[in-house]
Write a structure and sequence with these properties.
Strand content: 25-35%
Helix content: 25-40%
Structural class: alpha+beta
Strand order of the largest sheet: 1-2
Number of domains: 1
Distance between the termini: 52 Å
Length: about 80
């Protein structure tokens, strides 16, 4: 992502909704959404008389353990073999 300076008086940021990012169709298989943080701080740029808000968004995504996935699927596999 890049950054752009806008000459606006007000910017409103609302909280990101976790479950939108965690939709199964949006996340690659084997990964899951953990959390997000939104950090806002004033920054100064050379040549500008006023400060601007720098907004950083950090998204944490973890990879699912293959062992854990196999452990979950094991009872289902046994039932399929018995039927």
């Amino acid at each position: 992502m890049g950054s752009v300076l806008y000459g606006v008086n007000e910017v409103v940021i609302t909280q990101a909704i976790d479950f939108v990012i965690d939709e199964p169709n949006l996340m690659p298989n084997g990964y899951y959404f953990v959390s997000h943080t939104v950090d806002q701080k004033p920054v100064f740029f050379a040549g500008f008389e006023r400060s601007y808000d720098q907004i950083s968004i950090q998204i944490t995504i973890h990879r699912r353990s293959e062992y854990f996935i196999y452990l979950i699927n094991w009872p289902g596999t046994c039932l399929m073999m018995l039927t």
